[in-house]
Amino acid sequence: MPSELQTLAFDPIDPKVALAQLPQSPAVFALYGAEAHFEPYIGRTPNLSARLARLLQPSPKHPRRLQLAGRVRRIEWRLTGSDFESLLTQFSLLEGIYGAKSLERMHLGAPAFVRFLGGNPYPRIVVTHRPSQREADWAYGPFQSRTAAERFADEALKLFLLRRCTEDLDPNPSHPGCVYSEMKMCLAPCYKGCTDERYADEAATVESFLATRGDSRLVVLRTQRDQASANLEFESAAAVHAQVQRVEAVRSLAQELVRPLSQLRAVILQASANPDEIAVFLFENARLRGPAAFSTLGMRIQNEQSGSTSLFAHPVAIEAIPEVQPEPHAPREQAAEKQDPPLSTCRGTTSVVPQMTQDEPVALAPEENPPAGSPENSPQPAKLPRGVLESRLEAALATLAEPSDASSATLRQGHLALLKRWYYRPEARRTGEIFFPDSAGHWPVKAILRGIGRVAASGLTGSTPRRRDA
């Protein structure tokens, strides 16, 4: 969970004393005045020491630069490992002070959703920025923008016969209808062009399509296509295949983040301020939680820059095994059994080690004694069971999923906007990785561990990790 803010007193007469104690690291900071009612100055920076030196150390060379030395009496800061963590930390500080105004200060607008009005006797879909919490099962998003949401809604309606009018219908045969009913693009419930049961079936199909981002429709169409092809009805198969392509085109307009608001859950991995950890965030119940620290000590990190792929596709934990000197006239197996070394972990390397188990003896030397100082005489790491890493990750996720106080509407909107802003960044600028649960609600633990390895490796090489799996 996020660490507490570090505090440092500031004397405007001698600012160098305080500035010398600040680290040259990314951080979120708050500058407080002498009086409690003074509003603090809150910001984020990639270099805390340099940024506060510009703000708190007067310079005659830059008379127009903002100078706060005379107003500040206390500095608080928290080190961060990524821009994602910095934005979340900054919003948390602003929300605690300014409340709803923190959204305006950080320019966090409400994301766009496609909402299915299932409570209406004749359901339809609309685009909204204010999805109802009571109908969170029928709000699908967030989309990158309102334009993107409207385009998806328009293209999805072309696949079905749902109504597009916005009035509250009172079906009557004398109703004149609309252009969509004349073009056979609507079931025309306004003048009883269909039964209520037929319209309810169409509405349920649209709801399922939105909830699965088109998968429900694709399964049916692909089954029909395959059946027609098996029956040598190639013209029918080609017609159904054209429908499959249309559905896939509509599906591509909704990114993987687009889900029912009540089911929107995600694990986000980011670099940590601690070089031996990865920051894990959890988005659940419209709220971001974290970071929880996942220790990479004892974890072999794959090195994508070396060109290696298959050997290190699955991160493993390794344990340092002290070298055992066998007795002169005793078999190595007996010497190994006499040793019961304590457990200790170390950072893995890119060397290949044989897999060992706790029930098997550890052979530390070949049959012929190598010369002193050779690689064969050096301690060899042994793999720990993969369950160690999986248990470590599950413990971190369990910590993040612990019940907490009910969040405010401002907090939910801010966290949802931060997630949307980060997710829809260009891939070259989006650091970290995101993972979603499967259809049963289970987290893809092995895929997340591989993602942790890539994020950790990118911190060593300074590159942006490429996501290989979901």
Describe it for me?
It contains 13 helices and 14 strands. With 470 residues, the chain is of the alpha+beta class. It has 4 domains: 6-79, GIY-YIG endonuclease, CATH 3.40.1440; 112-213 and 254-259, no CATH class; 265-298 and 387-461, no CATH class; 318-383, no CATH class. A 4-stranded antiparallel sheet has the order 1-4-2-3, sandwiched between helices. It has a 4-stranded antiparallel sheet with strand order 6-5-7-8, with helices on one face. A 4-stranded antiparallel sheet has the order 11-10-9-14, with helices on both faces. β10 (277-284) and β11 (287-295) form a beta hairpin.
Largest sheet: 4 strands, antiparallel
Total helical elements: 13
| Intertermini distance | 25 Å
Tell me the count of domains: 4
How many β-strand runs?
14
Mean pLDDT, all residues: 82
What is the element string, with H for helices and E for strands? Answer: EHEEHEHHEEEHHHHHEEEEEHEHHEH
Stretches with pLDDT under 50, minimum 5 residues = 306-313, 335-384, 466-470
Helix content: 25-40%
The Rg value, from CA coordinates, equals 30 Å
Strand order of the largest sheet: 1-4-2-3
Portion of residues in beta strands equals: 5-15%
Shape: elongated
- Derived from helix and strand composition plus strand pairing, the structural class reads alpha+beta
Provide a compact summary of the structure.
With 470 residues, the protein is of the alpha+beta class.
